[in-house]
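Hey, resending since the last one bounced:
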Amino acid sequence: MNSNPALPRLDRSTVAAPKAPIRIVHLGLGAFHRSHQAWYTQHAGDSAAWGIAAFTGRRPDAAEALAAQDGLFTLVERSDAGDSFEVIGSIVEAVDGADVGRFAELVAAPATAVITLTVTEAAYGLGAADLPLLAAGGEPTTPMGRLVAGLAARRDADAGPLAVVSCDNLSDNGAVAREGVLSLARGFDAELAAWIEANVSFVSTSVDRITPRTTPADVAAVSEACGYRDSSPVVAEPFGNWILSGDFPAGRPRWEDAGAVFVDEIEPYENRKLWLLNGAHSILAYAGQVRGHGTVAEALADAVCLQAVEEFWDEAARHLEGADLGIPEYREALLERFGNSRIAHHLAQIAMDGTAKLRMRALPVLAAERAAGRSGDGAATMVAAWIAYVSSTPEIRDPLAADIREALELTPERRTGALLALLSPELAADRSLVARIHGLQDRFAAIVAH
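The structure tokens again:
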């Protein structure tokens, strides 16, 4: 992907970027890690003391490309005002995740204080596949298996406690990581499980930064603007958010210098993101595509879609308590972020797996509003938009796609009830709610002409 072979390649001789000592080991090297945790670490006040060794999750490609650049890459912050470019140097070693020996060696090093994870939600439930390998002393192939192998090496080296920080986009991710690790460890070594319980803290986080896929045009833009060849730039919006809750027994970078926030309870912040950001994304994804739009910015510019988002936000905000949450400011920032037309956030990608997402994004608000004696129309509208979308889209990517197709064979009125039942059989039994959601689909009927 190098656009101009005549230019010098980005490495630590090209720019002034000395290597920090490795104190953080990351599992799941990808674009989001580089735009988020690597950026926060570079901008910590004590960044010179905190280098990251980052391991890929599945394929070695990202590690090979970064290793050729001494771990350096360009972060392109993209907004309607233009692009800005920054070389990120906090990753000092990039490694193929299949190199379990090197991973275990670094986790076992006394200097290592933090392990961060971006391994996707599904990876937390796959560790059992590695149980026979771990029991036989072999090399595990899943992220949880590799993490357990690394922690076993740290226990054997008597290297002391550390923190595991999940940065994946799921609720109470620290507790999910803890359960995934401990269940696997208990399966083959009860003493290791006991050591992990006593020495490893699992930190929960809420993470946020839109990071679209890098294109050849982005690579060329970096070469032209910066005067060097970078095979692995990352594009991101200017906004970033990181909320953390938990202990760091061996220390951590001063991420708060870069804007990270440390809290006692993560749930209110998770709900703020889940309902206001992710909930709005779902409304825009479903209503926007029904009305002919392709990106978040396009859908937000549609008054019908924007009104649906604002109505849902009004409902959700009633159930987000705490002045520290800054709900009005958060909503205003979301409108600015969603309106960034130069970050192509595609609605088709957001629309995937609707049955799983709506249970977390729409149903809690709908239940809370109805319990308070209100209609819950804002949350019901999100469900109605989804039904309108699946009713008009030939190919649905969803864990319950077969059930959705079966429901689509029914008459429109029965279809609404059958689709709602996939989200909540209890709600589907309320005939008045089914009728209301059926009627709300009409607000998205108009198709935008292009």
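The chain is about 45% helix and 15% strand.

Sorry for the duplicate.
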